[in-house]
Amino acid sequence: MTPLPPYFFGYGSLVNTATHDYVDAQPAQLMGWQRRWCHTALRDVAFLTVEPAPQVQIDGLIAAVPDADWDALDKREFAYDRLAADHQIRHTLPGRPEISLYAVPTEAQNQGSQSHPILLSYLDVVVQGHLRVFGEQGVVDFFASTKGWQALILNDRLDPRYPRHQQLSPTERQLVDHHLNQLNAEILT
């Protein structure tokens, strides 16, 4: 039997398979962690990370990293540390493959702010991915299980700053906007 390649667990933009070409992508759950918006000195904008949170489970996507070639993914996720997460992820793969996730070290995290906003083009990609994989309830769960929404959101849809931005349908845009309205998010246009 051929051993399984290593996998990554994505919980943000990596859930949207239009942003990468990693194979064998499938839904999975991460136990004992929650999402949070943060920024670091390495990036000008806020982005998602995960932090330990007992009793919390979040949905995401696992995908294979062929030949254990982590270089391209490590470069994409340059502001994060890659952590072993084999025993914290529920999946349907046979056996116990190596699974890693990316998280910003706690000591490097800062709160999102007006100077370090959440890019709407990035959020759109994340929500589109969750909608396609988990449906509308998955989007509800994403917003409910993510902390740090007090950060300013920069509406860059007309001139996207996120390098892997995707075109959203009118329905997808309305879904994102609805949830931001529910949060009373501050959006800078």
CATH class: Alpha Beta
Taking all Cα atoms into account, the compactness measure Rg is: 16 Å
CATH superfamily: Gamma-glutamyl cyclotransferase-like
Strand fraction band?
25-35%
Largest sheet: 7 strands, mixed
Tell me the total number of β-strands: 10
What would you call the shape? globular
Average pLDDT across residues? 92
**What is the H-and-E element order?**
EEEHEEEEHEEHE
Structurally, how many domains make up the residues? 1
**Helicity, in percent?**
10-25%
Between the first and last Cα atoms, what is the distance in angstroms? 55 Å
CATH architecture descriptor: Roll
* DSSP summary: helix tally: 3
Give the oligomeric state of the chains in this entry, treating copies of one chain as homo and distinct chains as hetero.
Answer: single chain
Poorly predicted runs are none
Q: Structural class given helices, strands, pairing?
A: alpha/beta
- According to CATH, the fold-level topology is Hypothetical upf0131 protein ytfp
